[in-house]
Specification:
mainly alpha
């Protein structure tokens, strides 16, 4: 089980191309970013992985993502999340806080509500961080998220990630592991 450590070297960031396959660009990723339409910054998590790729979104620009979330993500983003994380619909719906009957309605409407979209984006961010922690190994990232973690008081990261406070706690543990602080 390989855990990625932070290094001063530039990292490859997956960027989905509008009319083609995703490519990797070498770029110096900053740990955190400021948001703003004029900034031109990309929604890249601190692990240097584009978490919007897990949802199949076309743009990684923060302003575009905010606008899309405010409008409501297309239901295909939820389906893409299922495909990319290998979660069941029921598990993903629980993580995102959408009752199954509501999820069925959203599928018919072809769009999630803004609050549901925001929670789905949070779940994708957590998965992106876990996948980055294990150097792109999605299965290992998913397994880590599904097992109780001592650093989280024995809690399962996926259970905590259903709230923003819990998701931040999971990200702090991932940050510590990336820095070589074993907790």
């Amino acid at each position: 089980m390989a855990i990625r450590r932070s290094s001063p070297l530039p990292r490859a960031i997956e960027v989905p191309e509008p009319d083609g396959p995703k490519t990797a660009r070498r770029t110096q990723a900053k740990p955190r970013e400021a948001t703003g339409a004029a900034s031109g910054l990309h929604a890249v998590d601190p692990a240097g992985r584009s978490y919007v790729t897990l949802l199949g979104l076309r743009s990684v620009r923060t302003a575009d993502i905010v606008q899309t979330v405010q409008k409501g993500l297309p239901f295909e983003a939820f389906e893409r999340f299922l495909t990319n994380t290998s979660l069941s619909s029921a598990d993903a719906a629980t993580l995102v806080g959408i009752p199954l009957r509501t999820l069925s309605r959203r599928k018919q409407e072809a769009r999630l509500q803004p609050d549901e979209s925001d929670r789905l984006l949070r779940a994708a961010r957590i998965f992106g961080r876990a996948i980055g922690l294990f150097e792109g190994d999605r299965d290992e990232g998913r397994r880590w998220l599904a097992r109780p973690q001592r650093a989280l008081g024995g809690a399962v990261p996926l259970d905590l990630a259903s709230t923003e406070v819990g998701a931040l706690a999971v990200e702090r543990v991932i940050d510590q592991l990336e820095q070589g602080v074993f907790v």
